[in-house]
Request: fold
Amino acid sequence: MTDSAHIEKYGRIGHWTVGRVGYGAMQLGDGVSADDAVAVLRRAVELGVNHIDTASFYADGEVNRRILQALAPYPKDLVLVSKVGAVHNNDGPLPLKAAQKPAELRAAVETDLRQLGVDRIPVVNLRRLDVGPGLTAEGDQIVSLDDQLAEMISLRDEGKIGAIGLSAVGPDVLRRALPAGIACVQNSYSVLDRSQEATFDLCVDEGIAWVPFFPLGSAFPGFPNVADDTTVRAVASDIGAAPAQIALAWLLARSPNTLLIPGTRSIAHLEQNLDAAEVALPAESLARLDAVGSREPADHDAGAFLD
Reply:
C-alpha cells in the first residue's frame, strides 16, 4: 500500500494511457433527459476524462447513442470501453438476459460499432457469468470460455476491437484467459466489498488494469452505500473530503493498475469524483480503511444488476 499523495494520475488499459479516474455511463439512460446526459458527458471530457465505459445493453442502446450525440467526432485520446455477454430484455422479468454464445458476442460488438459510430472499439469486456453479482448462465448459455475467447480474438484480429477485457470472473478463469492477452478486468470491488481480492492480486501481478465497478456501492438491493460507512465518514471528516472521495482515493491507493469509472447523472458529483484523485490519504487512514472491508461474497439481487 502506498500513500495516495504519491499515486500517479495516469494509468494504462491495453495500449492506451488514460486518466485513472474515468467515467461510467450506465446511469445516462432511463430517467435522464438527452440534454442532461449530453451535458454530463461533455463536462467529463472538458475536465480531462478520456476513459468512458458503456455497453449496448445500457437502456437498450440509448446510452451509446447519447455518447455519440455528445462527443462525436471523438477526441483522439478518448478510450471507449464496452462489454458484451448480455442483451437488453424488453419482455422478461429481468432487465437483462444472458447472451454468452460466440455469435451473440459478435452481434453485440457490431451493435456497439453502429450505435457509437466507430470502426473499432478500443476495449471490449467479455462479461462472463462466473461470479456475482448479476445474471447466471443456464442451459445453452453455459458457454466454454475457450469458444468465447476465440471469437473475441477473431474480432480483435479483424480490427473491430482493440483489446479484450473480462468482467465478473474469478482468478482461475483469468489465469486460463491470460494467453489471449487481457487488457483489463472489471469486478465488483470497493472498500466494503473485498470478495474479489484474489482476482485483484492476480491483476497486479500480471500488470492488468483493474477497473472496479460499484466502487461506492449501489442503490440496487443488497449493495451497501460506501459513503454511509462510519469509518469512511470518520476519515472523510478528519481529512476534510467527501466520503465518496475517500472511498475512491482508497481504491486509487490500492495499486497503480487500478482505474476508476464512477458513474453519476450529476455534474457536481462528476466533478467531486474527479477531485478524488487529489485526495491524499495518510498511512494511518489507509490502515483504518483497510480494516473495514469484507472478503466474503455479498448476497446481491441479481434481478436489479445491470453492469
Notes: The two ends are 28 Å apart (CA to CA). The longest strand covers residues 121-127. Residues 102-116 form the longest helix (15 residues). Residues 299-305 have pLDDT under 50 and may be disordered.
